[in-house]
Design brief:
Layout (H helix, E strand, L loop, with lengths): L1 H18 L9 H17 L13 E2 L11 E5 L5 E3 L2 E3 L4 H8 L7 E6 L5 H13 L4 E5 L1 E2 L3
Parallel strand pairs: 1-7, 2-5, 5-6
Antiparallel strand pairs: 2-3, 3-4
């Protein structure tokens, strides 16, 4: 029993000597807390950054396109107004603004988002302006039908 008491006392001395030394471990808890808060902020903010003008898009059963680069998006509201991001454009200014923001020139992918209440002729008119300017990769954007 004397040996057990001696070994227990020796263990206590080692613990005390370790506590008085420098702590060489990094406390990760504050770092993880900050990262989780940033993750939540970005999860909430990301859907708001996708498109500038809220539209009620038509629904289709078409599969989504696989696209690596972010395309240039033109939005057409129900009243026929055309937007590039959140900037309203006239028909004459569409080609100039597209040339400013397109990085790949005429090979830039251009998405046209038209509200489902907008006249089909207006959507065709905007697409005609874009394709006549020389852009080859023009596509319509719809929502996926969940039925």
């Amino acid at each position: 029993m004397a040996m057990m008491a001696g070994s227990a006392g020796g263990g206590r001395r080692r613990r005390r000597s370790r506590q008085s030394g420098v702590i060489n471990e990094i406390n990760m808890t504050p770092f993880i807390d900050v990262m989780l808060v940033l993750l939540i902020i970005f999860m909430v903010a990301a859907p708001m950054m996708t498109a500038g003008v809220p539209l009620d898009l038509p629904q289709t059963k078409a599969a989504p396109l696989n696209s690596d680069a972010t395309p240039v998006t033109l939005s057409i509201k129900a009243n026929g107004q055309v937007f590039l991001g959140e900037t309203e454009l006239t028909d004459e200014a569409i080609v100039g603004k597209l040339a400013e923001v397109s990085k790949a020139g005429f090979d830039e992918r251009v998405f046209v988002r038209g509200d489902k209440k907008v006249d089909y002729g207006r959507v065709a008119q905007v697409m005609s302006i874009v394709t006549t300017a020389g852009y080859k990769r023009v596509a319509l954007v719809t929502e996926i039908d969940q039925r």
